[in-house]
């Protein structure tokens, strides 16, 4: 790790200044800093400086991003179709979750993402193999990228006996977070599902992140059960609800009552801001004091051909979904893939301030809003003080 | 105009073949074509061949795309705020609709768009100046890009006396299409507004394209009046309704009744597929036999910081908005910025078939779906038989 002086950069589009990086952290931000002896100097040429991006909800293990052939998607419309199609495809092709996750993680880094929360499938067909392979990717990337692994029962836990023991094993071998999935709609026994999820969290002293696709009052019921357990078990600040689509179609009063409880318990929301269905909106969540942050969900996998390792594009999609047009609104969309993502996932020391981890991204843009809508090439990516990428490509 | 043989390309991802271009048109598509004497040969290296893209609804005159400074958006939430803000900004800055539209049109061409329908503001402040300047852009671009101009009363017609005469003048000087705007919500006198719009269409023998942002039953009422006039005046196939948001929030039976009438009258829909509100969906429109096609709306103007001259990106946003995941569905999203756009706007001879205008785009993609989701650089753009761009940049 070399120390670094970044000259003439505009943090979030503000006035130009210099950034001194020492020991992997931001030592100082001020105009006209002197380079200490032996410190490498980068000329930022007045570029926009952004903090490293946070991908708060993806599935590194599922992608076909690294494969030579295009995967033709012919999947059916139901969520169960997608789950079954994926499991069968994986078994048939011998999908390599290690190669997939490593290629994807590197693409994220080249585009400025220095922190990732990845859900990773655990099921009775694949066992803990995907977690094992993503743990290898995590170790490989550790010097320049922080990856959290959610042990995720994608194929359901209750209908497939032994999944709970596999999750237990995945957490014992290093997965960071206990995953869960639609306690009513998929699992069909919400109390039993959530008691297992929260039981594993208690056993391993690890947080929880639950996929909740359930709409309307069904989703509200599951969310209620989640909040009840969060409070009863003292897991404030340790629970994320991913998607939480129900918050997009409840009446405002019911929605706001749930948001108030989430805020009080420090339960955060991960959103991909899909365009095709009701979603929790950023404005009401923030107004209630709930942290809401962004992610791609899967990228070019058997579920979807969409997605991109570019978190500025995800910020744009969040902005479009929330009809954020003003510059101060677009800044909120960016916050979803930066500070809010770090808070929601528990990535420490994020941001552009002395003492923070030196995760820095330089782009040619006149303003933060322009960076989001134009998504210019990443001229420089610094992660934990190391130069990780230039001009969109990883440094060897 | 040079004739051209394009070797080894895969039309829409199909089997490799060659394309012979003569006199600005596709003369033949087949494997192993011989190059006639004197014909330039391009090696397509197995790249994906797409037809030239169609931008079906934009506002070339409004953009700030060409300006050195970023426009900070601080506009209010109502549509009237956006209309007033824009008119005042234009007057204050002396906005140059000629430079704006030319820069934007060129950016579209470099990204493969060879046909554009642009609404152009006509109002009592700017008069017909914007139309005059976009007519200049149209003339400049004519050899390589076909631009349709809609004379568009953005600031309303009824509240600003004389706007109808300005529209009349704009049509006389060469605008192609009569524009209109929210007959109830903005104009507040739907019959009078539509009678002027359709009266101008009759007088000039030109088609109609009406912005209809009105929601629900109000929008359905305006649409009913539009369809009534289309039939009464024998304007079948000559009317486009832009946005038609109401079709996104009506009950299915009412929606389908309107769609059936639209199909019978050849009334098409232009959609930007915004993520933040109900919109007409591609599936029901196509099932009813209604042509639905895509556009950006404004790009980086006082209304919105979003938008891109890349119609593959618009296709992606249409796909996301419609939850199109299967390859055959993503192909429908692409159709919205290609064949359907040409049909809806009345751009003739579009497509990849002998006799069609030789508007050709080459990209490195394994499939049509990949071209939409990955939006790769345009390696070659041919327009009316001329090589117009390479590697994303215009050829001089």
UniProtKB/TrEMBL annotation, chains A, B:
Any one GO molecular-function label of the UniProt entry: hydrolase activity, acting on carbon-nitrogen (but not peptide) bonds, in cyclic amidines
| SUPFAM superfamilies linked to this entry | Composite domain of metallo-dependent hydrolases (SSF51338), Metallo-dependent hydrolases (SSF51556)
Source domain of life: Bacteria
A Pfam family that the UniProt record links to this protein: Amidohydro_3
Matching entries from InterPro entries are given as:
Amidohydro_3, Metal-dep_hydrolase_composite, Metal_Hydrolase, Metallo-hydrolase_Enzymes
Gene3D superfamilies for this protein: Metal-dependent hydrolases, Urease, subunit C, domain 1
- Ranges for the Amidohydrolase domain? 105-387
Protein name as annotated:
Amidohydrolase family protein
